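Workshop exercise sheet. Pairs work together: one partner reads the sequence aloud, the other fills in the structure field after running the prediction. Swap roles for the next sheet.
Pair: D.N. / O.F.
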Amino acid sequence: MKNFLNILKKNRLIKSIYSIFNHISQKKITKFQIIFTAYFFIFSLFLFFSVPSVYDFNKFERQIVEKIDSVYKLKILNISGINYRFIPSPHIILNSVDLKLDDSSEIISNIKQLKISISVLDFYNKKKFNLKEIKINKGNFYLDKKNLNLFRNHFKEKIHGKISINNSNIFYKDSKGEIVSISPIKKLKYYINLNTKQKKLEIIGTIFDSKYNFLWQKDYNNPKLKHIYLSLS
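Structure field:
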């Protein structure tokens, strides 16, 4: 909490708000002053988070793509546009993007909207993107034997940021390129717990008309030790 407050103090707008609240906390104030201060604080936060909306985020496309590559080890290309939203939390949206697992692989998905949670403080201070989480909703992913092996290597070996996928489908193709199975994904979380130093892949979905819960876990305190849990219903 102390580190968060120190970061806030470095920003001019937040520093002013912090100074005001620090000052009035030492004074006896009326109910009207409390209400006025509360409204001022809410308006200031709204202004703080909404200001990035005036930026043309398309100018930051290369920086965003490189950041996704370095943090998530994913290749993003053919972006049609970039927008900023701050409700319910600050994030950017990449419109109609193609997704690859590496430079040599085929495109595994065209995602209409790729939502990426960002740190507004880092953007204000450095015009840099600290990506906190990638969120995909209603995506279709096409995998074959090669891409499936790349995906396995991705979550076994590569360090990456948090990824969430909801209400999506995985289509598996055979050697002829024909779809032989479809696996609906209700929820998928793919992340590293920095406190416990564990990488986890959690999936709730359906395959062959059977619902399943899947958990794959790797412990970086003991990298050779892996846990796999699968429950079918």
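Discussion prompt: The radius of gyration is 22 Å. What would you look at next?
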